[in-house]
Specification:
single chain, mainly beta, Methylamine Dehydrogenase, Chain H, four-stranded antiparallel beta sheet, 0% helix
Length: 193
């Protein structure tokens, strides 16, 4: 699920292959998007614009208009299901993480791929863009969280404090700390050196 920037709507992705926009005040569905052919693993609302990105078991990432349900672009360069998606803070790029062991950064208007990060030894389950737009933190089955430069995929730091698959990562608003959640039943808070 993800909130709109004005907090008036929420988007949810489902195993029934649809994504729905909900009006928070009424609880009613505003839009239903049915562009995927498999379950939806992740959704993200762009910052201050009406676009949604959704990642699916159908190996695609789809960009669509939240209120018309119109498809804007379908990215199909992953070779396995897409587990996490995120907009860059300036909305110029999308990062998508997949069971194909990669995180890819690409242009939402034309699909041009700028970075294909393959530093993980296994599925990439979680990923987040730093609020300052400089870095990506990604985690997965290899039990690591890897921090790398969004502009070119250069590794910066690898956190090895978890003993099982990393399921979630989130940055602090100042882009200096990360909280990571794992199947080792811990949430760990740590600073990026």
């Amino acid at each position: 699920m993800a909130w709109s920037s004005d907090s008036k709507n929420v988007v949810s992705g489902s195993a029934d292959h649809s994504a729905r926009i909900w009006d928070v005040a009424s609880g009613n569905a505003v839009t239903i998007y049915r562009g995927h052919s498999s379950w939806i693993n992740s959704v993200a609302w762009s910052h201050n614009s009406p676009y949604i990105v959704s990642g699916s078991g159908d190996k695609t990432v789809q960009v669509w208009d939240a209120f018309s349900g119109t498809s804007q672009y379908i990215y199909s360069r992953h070779t396995n299901e897409v587990l996490a998606v995120a907009w860059s803070p300036d909305n110029s790029n999308i990062a998508s993480a997949s069971d194909d062991d990669t995180v890819q950064i690409w242009d939402p208007m034309n699909g041009n791929r700028y970075v294909n990060y393959n530093g993980h030894a296994g599925f990439v389950v979680a990923m987040a863009w730093s609020p300052d737009g400089q870095y990506i933190a990604s985690g997965g089955v290899d039990t690591t969280v890897q921090v790398w430069k969004a502009i070119n995929g250069t590794p910066v730091f690898t956190y090895t404090g978890h003993t099982a698959e990393v399921e979630g990562v989130i940055w602090s608003p100042d882009s200096k700390r990360i909280a990571s959640a794992s199947d080792d039943q811990t949430v760990q808070l740590w600073q990026v050196p």
